[in-house]
Amino acid sequence: MFASLHIATWIVSALTVFGVIFRPGRWPEWVFAAGGAALLVVAGLLPWQEAAHGIAMGTDVYLFLAGMMLLAGTARREGLFDYLAAFAARSAKGSPQRLFLLVYAIGTLVTVFLSNDATAVVLTPAVIAVARAAKVVSPLPYLLICAFVANAASFVLPISNPANLVVFGEDLPPLGDWLARFALPSALAILATFWILRWTQRRHLVGATRTDIAIPALSVGGRIAAIGLCAAIVVLLTASTLGFELGPPTLIAGLVTALAVMIGERSNPLPLVREVSWDTLALVAGLFVIVRALEVSGLQTTLIDALQGPLNAAPDLGAFAAGSALAFGTNLTNNLPLGLLAGAFTTAADLPQRVVDAIVVGIDIGPNLSVTGSLATILWLTALRRESLDFGALAFLRLGFLVMPPALALALLAVLYQPWG
């Protein structure tokens, strides 16, 4: 009886993840996540109390996402990203290679301090506009930066990717420990991704770009948003250093920045509500319920019994294997549900630190293989389509096979053999 219920739970969970990734009928992702969670409760596969517990487990992640959406959305609305992109185009002085480097640098900074989703959502439209204004041979190299750096730079800091909060949960390392463990792997991943991506796009980086790009003047709101972002970064780094949860300070920073802009410009407060992607929060909450159902069904215990011993017996080999398997696995399941499951596993199991670090690296950088790997890449594709642009899934996969594995291998080797590890 119990075995059949557990199998039914696994089937519903698998179908839910399938729906989130492939969106049959083109329905939004959150519909499948929330629908699958509701079905588990209605069918008696998961008590409603456990479902509520699953939703509550994601509180810090919801607050973090909402705060980052407010910060990034306010900066976008006030033209801060358009300003940065135009500044990069003017600073390139007619060189497409220099423009590529500058856009990559800006994309790295946005990812590091505002999370990978912000790079996909708010930087991509700005890069499209500036690439057109600069009359580049092809906007493709610069747009691919927004997709690939969003994952490659997503473990520089804990705030660089919501998946980091998911994997570590309450065990999120303080900032000093985080940097000691991930600074070198992150640097290698960012540099490897840059050089390989630039090499693959070299035939598009020819000719000269326009040098008379108009840099838009920052409004009062834009200047306030820039100050708010800098202040928010200081607050979040301080909170991370002290080992506090990142959700509450992120939300407070987002609210204060958005309200300061509205007061400074005496604007309507309603756009504040629209900056939060409520369907994304519903998607994450639904996935937390799915993961809780898998835990209750005994899947987590089964994984611990099967993997904890081998991972502890051969930690180096286990770390490399676990990081690699999860990196490729993100492209089958998307890194958000897989990150939630991996987070539950790493929290409950007794694992060597290098294994946990390798799991984070795999979850974060693995999605650079395909368009289904992460929410950030899916959002990037959506941003392209809004501008009547597209990049095929097969073309992304071919490029991903060149870009992702070397960056992953270097990052994992750094996790294992960094001098201070």
In short:
By secondary structure, the protein is mainly α. It is 76% helix and 0% strand.
Average of pLDDT: 88
SS field, number of helical segments: 20
* Poorly predicted residue ranges: none
SS strand fraction: under 5%
Cα-based radius of gyration, to the nearest Å: 21 Å
Describe this structure in words.
With 421 residues, the protein is mainly α. The chain is built from 20 helices and no strands. α11 (220-241) runs antiparallel to α12 and α18 (353-365) packs antiparallel against α20. The longest helix is centred in the middle third of the chain and has 26 residues, at 175-200. The termini are far apart. The mean pLDDT is 88.
SSE blueprint:
Layout: H1 2-22, H2 29-42, H3 48-57, H4 59-77, H5 80-91, H6 96-114, H7 116-133, H8 140-152, H9 162-168, H10 175-200, H11 220-241, H12 247-265, H13 270-274, H14 278-296, H15 299-313, H16 315-333, H17 335-348, H18 353-365, H19 375-386, H20 393-417
Helix pairs in contact: 1-2, 1-14, 2-14, 3-14, 4-11, 4-12, 4-14, 5-6, 5-7, 6-7, 6-8, 7-8, 7-19, 8-10, 9-17, 10-20, 11-12, 14-17, 15-16, 15-17, 16-17, 16-18, 16-20, 17-18, 18-20
